[in-house]
Specification:
6 strands, four-stranded mixed beta sheet, two-stranded antiparallel sheet
Length: 141
């Protein structure tokens, strides 16, 4: 940390006046100056899809394919082609968030049409003999 004592002049040629505030805590607050020049465009990212494993990432890519990426289902990471290679296995970028909450149940669907009647099945095997019933009442003569 650099300490400044005494009189400090802050400014750029052609820049608007800069306001400096020194609150009681001694920290110097400076209002923004002139914005700098625009930076160069970065490489865009285009997720192309998913593959089962790292070994399934496409081959035959070149410099024009830089920025193309695939999610590997095996580890859940995104691997982006640099123009020369993919990151090493396990060095992809985590891009999937946590599982969301379960949504509300959808509306009940309409009742479907009655299905066709199936064919008569084969008769089943003979069942076991049941237990003897109770003795009947004596009849009249």
């Amino acid at each position: 940390m650099t300490e400044l004592c005494g009189r400090v002049r802050i400014g750029l040629p052609g820049a608007p006046a800069t306001r400096v505030v020194v609150p009681s805590g001694g920290r110097v607050l400076v209002s923004p100056g002139v914005p700098g020049p625009a930076g160069s465009d970065g490489v865009s990212l285009a997720i192309q899809g998913r593959v089962d494993s790292y070994g399934d990432l496409p081959s035959g890519l070149d410099g024009e394919d830089a920025g193309r990426g695939w999610i590997v289902d095996e580890d859940g990471l995104l691997y982006v082609w640099s123009g020369k290679s993919f990151p090493q296995v396990g060095r992809g970028v985590s891009c999937l968030g946590p599982q969301g909450e379960r949504g509300p149940a959808g509306p009940r669907g309409e009742r479907g049409e009655r299905g066709l009647t199936g064919e008569q099945g084969e008769p089943g095997p003979q069942g076991e003999r049941g237990p003897a019933g109770p003795r009947g009442e004596r009849g009249e003569r």
